[in-house]
């Protein structure tokens, strides 16, 4: 006859307290990830709504860019259609930027808007590969400063900042190849009336540039994945506790002879 050995002793209660605490912590982390996923879903909905709104022109873009910062932020990811002339003498190349796993440059050129006095917008035009045999060589990017061009894209945040050593060759104003670009400092350096925002050019590859930008997303799926992991760990702790601290106490060791 199988008998149940009543759990007693300090060891049992220490294990019980530790298991309960671990389950509470992992369950709380799982719920927190679910709340983060809900926030990101709301953000994704907002981004999708902005992306589906009609494209704005250069005049509207400059009008909003001159307003309060919250109105400027409300334009991020809005589609734009701009017409103007490139200012190729102010083109900069952001180094160590990847596209499809390949390192190269992000190419940024100011666009003088047509029909708008002193209206200039900095455009992130695309990605170009780097010559690793001659790291000072610039990629061949077709840029005409005479013809009026039509640029389709979306309002975007500035490219992410990368670590750089102070006083390096890529420092602000010392080279066309740079590690980072500060919009306010670039405005002072060039003397251009740059808008307080940037535009990311979209569309097919051209002018020696690729434009396979990542899809705009809030990263909802990763939070659901993290929540699944935390809840799974919580369940695993519960199963292990029940098995080793309760179920096994009903099982007679094989070495024990039958009564």
């Amino acid at each position: 006859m199988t008998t149940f050995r009543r759990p007693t002793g300090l060891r049992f209660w220490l294990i019980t307290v530790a298991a309960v605490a671990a389950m509470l912590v992992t369950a709380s982390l799982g719920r927190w990830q679910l709340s983060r996923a809900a926030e990101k879903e709301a953000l994704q909905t907002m981004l999708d709504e902005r992306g589906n709104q009609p494209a704005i022109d250069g005049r509207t873009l400059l009008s909003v860019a001159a307003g309060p910062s919250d109105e400027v932020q409300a334009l991020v990811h809005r589609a734009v259609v701009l017409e103007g002339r490139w200012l190729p003498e102010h083109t900069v190349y952001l180094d160590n930027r990847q596209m499809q796993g390949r390192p190269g440059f992000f190419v940024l050129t100011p666009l003088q808007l047509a029909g708008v006095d002193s209206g200039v917008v900095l455009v992130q035009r695309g990605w170009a590969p780097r010559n690793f045999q001659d790291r000072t060589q610039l990629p061949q990017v077709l840029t005409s400063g005479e013809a009026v061009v039509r640029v389709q894209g979306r309002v975007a945040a500035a490219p992410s900042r990368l670590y750089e050593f102070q006083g390096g060759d890529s420092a602000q104003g010392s080279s066309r190849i740079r590690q980072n670009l500060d919009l306010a400092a670039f405005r002072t350096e060039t003397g251009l009336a740059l808008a307080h925002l940037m535009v990311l050019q979209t569309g097919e590859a051209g002018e020696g540039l690729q434009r396979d930008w990542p899809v705009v997303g809030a990263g909802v799926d990763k939070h659901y994945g993290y929540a699944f992991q935390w809840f799974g760990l919580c369940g695993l702790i519960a199963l292990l506790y029940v098995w080793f601290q309760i179920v096994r106490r009903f099982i007679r060791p094989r070495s024990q002879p039958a009564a």
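The mean pLDDT is 85. The two ends are 7 Å apart (CA to CA).
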